[in-house]
Amino acid sequence: MMNFLKNGDFQHPQYAFFALIGFLVWSIAYFNLFKKPQIFIPKKYKIGSFSFFRIIFFVATTIAWAYLAIALAGPRRPLGNQEDKINVKDIYVVVDLSRSMLAEDMPPNRFESAKKQVHDFVNLFTLDRIGVIVFAEKVFTLLPLTTDTKIISKMVNGIQMGPLGDGTNIGDALALATARLLESEAKSKIIVLLTDGVANVGTMTPVQAAEIAKENKIKIYTIGMGGDENARIPIGGKNVFGVQRYQTIPGGSIDVKTMKEISEMTGGKTYLAKNNNSLKQVLEQINKLERTEVIKRQGKVVFEELYYRYLVIAAILFAFSELGRRYLGRELV
Q1: What is the pTM of this model?
Q2: Is there a cis peptide before residue 108, judged by omega within 30 degrees of 0?
Q3: Domain assignment of residue 93, given as a range
């Protein structure tokens, strides 16, 4: 028991309270505290209220109630963590946060549409590990690979425009996603790039990053966001008359040639998403790729249930006490 107290715990400690109540009720009945005698017995025929047998039976029953309390509390000893193998694809979604993503040709704008599409990934690939990288002039890992869809959704909802500058650093973003996937044990390693622009900053070009991805069997799928010749982005706030000012961005700003080159080089595909429903093809294509059963995740803690041991001891002590009172103590139980 001492070894258990050092290494074990209780699943329902509050249930021990019921045993305490039972012990108090039993004690009151055992000592007849509130019961008036109905038959007068002369003193010379009375058995002492604390005779040897009554003391033995009281101690035995008290211990029985204690063991019953422990049993009700659900004693258990942790044996360790159970690891489960899951079939997964490892996917990094790389999202462009440059200023042009505020264009409103994909209502309410390309930025919000991209966030919605990341949520679509989460809903479709619930068995896969998904990570998120965001970029503009700078590159940032928003979330490492995880299967926790709630965390992914929460982090994506919190994405804001602005903190990463105003450039379009596609090359470094792809390089970071590739580096993150190098440690993956999955057979299917995928990068999904959502962008509406042309790489104009960074230490590595998109093609150079794609070459590294190709060497490590990482597929890159590219999705061009928008592309409307008349797409506009808001400038500042509304004027004194409550009118929002806009600036037209050059039509066809997506570098389709480079996007196709890096996709074909790595075995992926390129898609142009001109509306909010254009992502369906790439999602279905990626979903067909092979999953691999090598990724381990931490499962539930495995416990050895110990309640039955204390329950058996309690039952034996209860039986000893009640039978002893009836046949040794000559009590009317």
Answers
A1: 0.61
A2: yes
A3: 84-296
